[in-house]
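step=predict obj=Substrate-binding domain-containing protein n=312
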Amino acid sequence: ASSVACLMLSGAAFAADLTVGFSQIGSESGWRAAETTVTQQQAKERGIDLKFADAQQKQENQIKAVRGFIAQGVDAILIAPVVATGWDEVLGEAKEAEIPVILLDRQIDAPDDLYLTAVTSDQVFEGKVAGEWLVKDVGDKACKVVELQGTTGSSPAINRKKGFEEAIAGKSNITIARSQTGDFTRTKGKEVMESFIKAENGGKDICAVYAHNDDMAVGAIQAIKEAGLKPGTDIKVVSIDAVPDIFLAMQAGEANATVELTPNMAGPAFDVLEKFKADGTLPPKWIQTESKLFTQADDPKGVYESKKDLGY
Ligand code: AHR
């Protein structure tokens, strides 16, 4: 019994001793803000010393931050990678320094021996769920969709587009008329939606907007209203994240569907990191989070209440 107690004690002391660098993308969306809050809470609860670096949407800042963490000799590095390419060199440096790297919420195009694991959703599936919702909602009616893409070159922008296109493939009545990046922000989402509306007969020719995140959808809703149309009715709104504000829009009948992305990527990341540090257990290369569809039928008021104080 005493050796078990001793092991438990040393395990607990070990977790408390960890110093982890976190290179966050920035604060482009409500979801991103929540992920930052949850990561800081998770670190605090576990006694992990979290070194936080905000990259302000720039990969070069993320690379600098990672190099800084390596120089400080941290025990591990979390990266939410803004884009999918261009990581090999810096991750090679982390590997050389024997510092495990965990990717949060976005995937990268690099050999998987450069990181310990990636905690992300299946982003192609998210796009598919959004597309399948629209296919069902529209039925056989002709439907011109406009698409607000996420940050160019980011894995969610690439994959959510792919998944949605897969869902509508074979449905000749549904076409993507326009598709442009809104950079995952409300401001850009609104701006781009305004230009779509202008180009599509004052919005009258648009049947639905598919936004790669809720913040852009909220921006688009504003643009639709300012054009004198009814979001959720004249133009259907489907997006991804399930942030509290989209449930407010759903309550008002102005948004139709969203696919939930948990902001708690750090919990599973710290779980596997602590195990890896304690006894060398290697996690799977991909820890997949859930993707759940919410519509106006799913008690948006209740969901809003349950989420509103969670750091979004
Ligand atoms: O990588 C996850 C995406 O990044 C979220 O859907 C979006 O809101 C964020 O900016």
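step=describe
The radius of gyration is 21 Å.
step=end
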